[in-house]
Amino acid sequence: MRRRRLLQKNEDQDPLSVLTNLFDIAMVFAVALMVALVTRYQMNEFFSKDDFTMVKNPGTEQMEIITKKGEKIEKYKPSEDTNENGTRGKRVGVAYQLDDGQIIYVPE
Predict the structure, then answer these.
(1) Which residues cross the membrane (predicted)?
(2) Among candidates 92, 64, 66, 91, which has minimal Cα distance to 77?
């Protein structure tokens, strides 16, 4: 009983013991928040070793194409004036992918 009282006194005298506990809690909270965001926004592909292509906001002016090849992630935002080479061009059609994976090209 006496030893227990001595241990409690030593803990009460150390003002930094509270900060170490808060740091541990903050680290656990940060990791949990990162895991929740990855699962919520379905970003699991970014952490896999597979290559992929993703279209963000398809069919709108804010459309972006994100590709991952190996460790390199590239983001491409098409514009009406220039293409990725800096030359002028125009849209010539639309491609659709069916549920079975088949891609259909429809010229304009």
Answers:
(1) 20-39
(2) 64
Select from 27, 70, 29, 28 the least CA-distant residue to 46: 70
CB 98 within 8 A of CB 104: yes
| Residue 23: C-alpha distances to residues 13, 15, 27, 32, 75 (Å) | 19, 14, 6, 14, 36
CA atoms of 56 and 75, how far apart (whole Å):
10
Provide the residue type at 35 as one letter: V
Q: Give tens-digit pLDDT for 67-77.
A: 888 888 888 87
Q: Are 65 and 52 in contact (CB under 8 A)?
A: no
pTM of the model: 0.38
- CA atoms of 94 and 107, how far apart (whole Å): 6
Instruction: Report the alpha-carbon distance of residue 37 to residue 35 in Å, rounded.
Output: 6
Extents of the domains making up the chain: 2-40, 44-107
